[in-house]
Amino acid sequence: MKTLFRYLTVLVFCAISQIAFSQPITSVQSGNWLNPTTWDCSCIPTPGSIVVVEHAVALNTDWAYSSGSITINPNGSLLGAGGLRTIAVYGTGSFVNNGTLQVNKMAIFSGTISNNGSLTVTDSLYLNIALTNGASGTIVSNNFYSGNHLINNGTINAVNFLNNGIFENFDQCHFTDFFNNLTGQNSGIIEFYDFYNNDSFANTAQIYGSYDFTNAGEFHNTGNIRVDHDFANTDSINSDAYFNNMGHFYIANDMINFDTLTGSSIGQYCIGNNSTNAGVFLGDFDFCDLTPPATAPFIDLNSGTISTNVTYCATPCTDGVAEEIKEEQNVILFPNPASDMVFITSANIIEKLEVLDISGKLILQIFPNNKETSLFIDELDNGVYFVKIQTEKSVQVKKLQIL
Predict the structure, then answer these.
(1) I need a labelling partner for 184 at 20 to 30 A (CA). Which of 5, 51, 218, 324 fits?
(2) Where are the beta strands (DSSP E) in 210-307?
(3) pTM reported for the whole predicted model
(4) What separation in angstroms does the CA of 270 have from each of 227, 234, 299?
(5) How far is the C-alpha of 128 from the C-alpha of 91, rounded, in Å?
(6) Residue 339 pLDDT grade (very low, low, confident, very high; cuts 50, 70, 90)
(7) Hey, CA dihedral for 50, 100, 160, 197, is it positive or negative?
């Protein structure tokens, strides 16, 4: 009888423990993650806990879990204390952000993740599972690796972005260096400094680059692309780079083709400076070098093969850039870098200016209601900031270096 009683006692204790463990642990006030008074259980969450963040919680420890979840609700925030914290999710762990997250590093190896809030990872974000960034979601990171299926319906800002899975953009992305190593598709707006396609990419909307664009894979364009510096279509290993243009491609400086350029009669390549072909021109696209030689083919340097159906400047060249991207060029921030003051000018009324630090924290906000204004930055620490400029027609984000 005593043995049976002890056995039943153990079962009851285990059941109670399991129920307690599965109950959500919810913040009841702002405070540190490791402070029991922050949570309704008067305890500290452990890996596997179901954690709900409703307040401003400071993550004052690195956190890794293979089960359980973290959910940040719209009014909640989870901010890495000192800006040096890491979150790692694997196993069946779940991470849901509808509020604000700011940590130094984040790695999602398996489990699930969703974002409809502000997700800032200052150093590196490693994503090896599928993520749909919601329409109200913003992702900011210095180094962003996606190795699964990334769908963007919101905004992504990254210095270095490597796609090693499937990448689909339906809204807006701002990259310094973009490297596509598998499959990419753009049906929104992508802005970049350097773009390198190493596999397969399709553009049906707007791509704008302030420096170089290199295609070493297969690229299909039915939208508009503008590159302010050079374009190269070349694969130095397999010599099978393929660029198919059935839209508009404006290259402000030099173009060089070592492999295959093709396109239909509605496709046009516009070259602002030097053009070189050491590969193949196929199809019946229009090729327009704005500084052409005197005789056909109107290419500065040609040692390759050109289809007889290719035309030369059959229609006038335009930059083919959508109004929202043209607006970007009408907003000027100078000097940059700066130490004490910057000036902002726009072709349209500037309604609101916000200065954010690298973590996405709002530092300064003003409402100029004018086409030009100035910002005093002499009291800000040296480093990188983002200036969000809202005009009558668009919202632009520009990087500012303070020295």
Answers:
(1) 324
(2) 213-215, 218-221, 224-227, 231-233, 242-245, 248-251, 255-257, 260-263, 268-271, 275-277, 280-281, 286-289, 301-302, 305-306
(3) 0.77
(4) 10, 18, 11
(5) 12
(6) confident
(7) positive
